[in-house]
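Troubleshooting: if your tokenizer reports a length mismatch, compare your output against this known-good record of 189 residues.
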Amino acid sequence: MIIVLDVEQAEVDLHAGALRCPHCSAVLRPWSSASARQIRQLDGSHRLVRPRRARCSGCRATQVLMPAWCLPRRADAAEVIGAALVAKARGQGYRSIARELGRPVSTVRHWLRGVRGDQVEWLRRQGVQRTFELDQDLLVDLTVQATALGDALCALAAAVLAWRRRFARPVQAWTLIGVFTAGRLLSPP
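Known-good structure output:
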């Protein structure tokens, strides 16, 4: 799976032979599309996504070009799950978060269990690394948060700010975080 920031540009790059296989570095070629699915948005609406598939000209492996605003194997957009993580970092419990987001309690509880221990530290490292690559000065301004999840989200927010400063493009924060984490916001690295 390859997480892409701009689906239209990824399509252009795919047809131009500019995308490479993550396994063998051979050229990826258009192949078909993955199954269409509905992704729930923060406002309660649904957005249809049908990710492009590509096949490697070398090893023949297939890849799905997943838009960064949605996460692999999740029915909710990154911004929905991100809102739950922010609420948890602020001290809310999973029941109240589920109520606010209009999601099942079990779903929210599962999301929050997916960001504990090593996963939280991995998220923090991704944020620090991206911030360091884009604007090292922002690392000085990181403040220690009350929780490890808060620290991780603060580092990711700094990376978003650094990216926006450098590229001056209006991209949603959770979409960028989807790129920074390669779609692994909840799953183990």
